[in-house]
């Protein structure tokens, strides 16, 4: 009997507890994705320079994720486990970065805060992905990643609406030119508290399984000591990555290019095209920026609902992960494209609802497919390496990919970035047809 077959099935609440830390992680990502471009604009950034201000974050992820995955694969403590020490380290650093980011007094400080924040969240995030594969048999993998997505959807919806809510209860939404409004500062402070407490909850409520063969585990760890041994193994695993992982990488490239485009340009594009507001110190712009956050919250809310539907389905029947992912991404692509054509502001909810379907699938289906295709003893490092296919498209987008492509394909108006995001997401959906491995595409 395989190690995977020996794993007991877990209850919904056991899976919920081990995934609950993602609530805080997504608070960090939603506030970062929804409002860092607003902070950059407030501090004087021109629209076309915004992607470059994001570049340090994916560059760091490219390095940090495989290393953290490798180290967590080789960590075991009878009390603290394998993945949980990395949860705690990442939580402490992320909390500090999230709290101080909106107090940046210059663009370079804000860009540095984003860099520290993204790197710190990454320390926690991929071990959470690996924990699902560590704890669940293959028959529960889709369900486990969908529960994570449900929690991520809750976090996205609440966090994206925090500045708007702060404004509603009377916290100022405007400030002097070059100063971030208090509504954003309060939102980031609340996010910092939620991030730390939710990850701590998972640490305190979740036990980890020891390695199946502890003696062999310790022997491998001893044989691979040293700084260069780790890098050698990481590069060897990259060179020998499974075919399924490489094909998923193509899907991931176009998916994350699309979402990086949204995070970078949704605020400037929608405030200008839909609300006709461009003066970053004006009440019109700041109210519009709050509204953009509210609409971005819609994709989190819908991703939560879609994850609930998927959780129910995957708990009852086996699904074709490839087809679910393909149609979900195409739906999201249509949502992005419709932003350009809407005639009423409320229609943004419809657009981002379609984006939410794609987001729910992006956060679950690729990881379910990948976890069924790699060696369980190398789950952490492969989850980290898989992150390359998330950060590389963001780097390409940041160094000019977005600016070059939207102007070349569509025109000079910043709203055309949403057409680019939609096109990229549809290509990502169709790329799922490359994946033919049944073990990856179907539940075990």
Query: SSE order, as H and E?
Result: HHHHHHHHHHHHHHHHHHHH
Q: Over the alpha carbons, how many angstroms does the gyration radius reach?
A: 21 Å
Largest sheet: none
* Domains (count): 1
For CATH, the homologous superfamily is named as MFS general substrate transporter like domains
- Helix share bin: over 70%
CATH architecture: Up-down Bundle
On the 0 to 100 scale, the average pLDDT is 84
- The level 1 CATH classification is Mainly Alpha
What structural category do the secondary elements indicate?
Answer: mainly alpha
Approximate shape: globular
Instruction: Identify low-pLDDT runs.
Output: none
Number of strand elements: 0
**Distance linking N and C termini:** 15 Å
How is the secondary structure organized here?
Blueprint: H1 3-6, H2 12-19, H3 21-42, H4 50-53, H5 56-73, H6 84-100, H7 107-135, H8 141-168, H9 182-205, H10 214-223, H11 227-239, H12 243-273, H13 283-316, H14 321-341, H15 347-362, H16 365-371, H17 379-386, H18 388-409, H19 416-431, H20 438-441
Helix pairs in contact: 2-8, 3-6, 3-7, 3-8, 3-9, 3-12, 5-7, 5-17, 5-18, 6-7, 6-9, 7-17, 8-9, 8-13, 8-16, 12-13, 12-14, 12-18, 12-19, 13-15, 14-15, 14-16, 14-19, 18-19
